[in-house]
Specification:
alpha+beta; 2 domains; eight-stranded mixed sheet; 22 strands; 19% helix; 29% strand; globular; serine-type peptidase activity; AB_hydrolase_fold; Xaa-Pro_dipeptidyl-ppase/CocE
């Protein structure tokens, strides 16, 4: 995959339009593991790009053409780029500062938080942070005398902001949100649960993993004295991706109703460097599952949540981690799988071109694919599960969810299956997204929560529970 290894080439174009000379700038040295990304020509014609050579973190570099040499512009244990799942990512831009100098404005992530910074002099590599309200950044682009940022924070939903710097380009003089995905959210700030970045021990001695913990928050209600909240733990998709500590109203739905929520960046997630990212190579279904279980146990041990009311949820690759945790471990008392992968062999055989060998690197050969596929171990499911599935899903065919549902039904384990006409891999219709959230809530509340839900929700039938 692009984040494993890739190459960056420069081609020289002749007058008749042919490439007459080719130079491999980065990625060609077999002794140097790197994955260059986001190449750009500066206004002066210099080539800049981001790569993770030597320190294992995506840092900005430049190519000295006359010497065919690569030099780091900065050297920091921080990620200045994201995995190249899609085209068009823009993590840095060139801006003109005083004395006609070209400076670089960039975003970077360190310890679960995004920062905006400026490098005035690529020779000295000095990175100056710029103070903005966003703690999570996606893309940057330059406008006329300004910048535009795509970002968010614990209290700001995904938004676009216009940023103006002073004449020296050394500090922010104006920050204005010009578009918000949820402009009314600030009205309910007293209900918003702010994430706490937690670092917890994994099953590997000396190795830690990370998660965002959201405590239940509601100014109108107070829990009974001594009662610990139930926990919903989420395993993100990808799996080479990262969950972020930004305002997500789907998470706030749970925390405003008395639940604690943990969003886990298990080993294999991005944002913490190559070594962390590669923990999942050959270990998908083991490291991610262990880290999710370790996170839940850590929160119980620290008195944050009720150990008898631990639930897990996830979609797609996160749904696979959810199903694997429920089949192969006994940490969680109930779970929800949203279009989750149940059959790794089928996924490996039928996935699209971009991911054609992705599963091989994450899991291994046919033996491992069979051993780690929850669909081959349905007899090991022993706690309640609710499954949500789109009937047009080409990535995870509906038969996988149906097979798990049927096996649990025959085994006598409480189970429910929700199928959506017209939905594919990931739900798009608002009414289905809402229904999925609500039915998870009422399913968990009825089976392990020991409480009535606050909302007027009509529960669907749960087999082996409802007469």
């Amino acid at each position: 995959m692009p984040w494993d290894r890739s190459e960056l080439w420069v081609g020289y174009i002749s007058e008749n339009g042919e490439i007459h000379k080719r130079v491999c700038v980065a990625g060609g040295d077999p002794s140097l593991v790197e994955s260059p990304t986001e190449p750009k020509w500066s206004p002066d014609g210099e080539l800049f790009f981001i790569t993770d050579r030597k320190n294992g973190f995506w840092n900005i570099h430049r190519w000295i053409e006359s010497e065919n040499k690569v030099e780091p512009v900065n050297f920091l244990d921080a990620e200045f780029a994201r995995p190249l799942w899609i085209f068009g990512m823009n993590s840095y831009v060139f801006v003109q500062s005083g004395k006609q100098r070209n400076s670089i404005v960039c975003s970077y992530r360190q310890q679960g938080k995004s920062y905006l910074g400026i490098i005035h002099d690529v020779q000295s590599s000095t990175l100056t942070p710029l103070d903005i309200p966003f703690t999570d950044l996606d893309n940057i682009t330059s406008g006329k005398e300004c910048l535009y940022l795509e970002g968010a924070s614990a209290v700001h939903p995904s938004s676009i902001a216009k940023v103006t710097l002073d004449d020296d380009k050394s500090k922010v003089v104006n920050f204005n949100i010009i578009w918000s995905s949820s402009p009314d959210s600030l009205k309910y700030s007293s209900y918003i649960s702010k994430p706490e970045l937690i670092e917890f021990p994994t099953e590997v001695p000396g190795q830690n993993a990370y998660a965002y913990f959201y405590p239940p928050t509601n100014p109108i209600y107070q829990a009974n004295q001594g009662e610990k909240p139930p926990l919903l733990l989420k395993s993100h998709g990808g799996p080479t991706a990262e969950t972020r500590g930004l305002l997500n109203l789907s998470i706030q739905y749970w925390t405003s109703r008395g639940w604690a929520f943990a969003d886990v960046n298990y080993g294999g997630s991005t944002g913490y460097g190559r070594e962390y990212r590669e923990r999942l190579l050959g270990q998908w279904g083991i490291v991610d599952v262990n880290d999710c279980c370790s996170c839940a146990k850590y929160l119980v041990a620290n008195g944050k949540v009720d150990g008898e009311r631990l639930c897990i949820t996830g979609g797609s690759a996160g749904g696979y981690t959810t199903l694997a945790a429920l089949a192969f471990r006994d940490t969680f008392k109930a779970g929800a799988s949203l279009y989750g992968v149940g059959d790794l062999s089928l996924l490996s055989a039928e996935t699209h071109k971009f991911e054609s060998h992705y599963i091989d690197k994450l899991v291994g050969g046919e033996k491992e694919l069979i051993e780690r596929s929850p669909i081959n171990h349905v007899d090991q499911f022993s706690c309640p599960i609710i499954l949500f599935q789109g009937l047009e899903d080409k990535v995870v065919p509906p038969d996988q969810a149906r097979k798990i549902y049927q096996a649990l039904k025959e085994k006598g384990v409480p189970v429910a299956l929700v199928e959506y006409e017209g939905e594919q891999h990931g739900f798009r219709k608002a009414e289905n997204i809402k229904f999925t959230l609500e039915q998870q809530m009422v399913f968990f509340a009825r089976l392990i929560g020991n409480f009535n839900v606050a909302d007027d929700i009509t529960p669907i039938k749960i087999d082996n529970f409802d007469n």
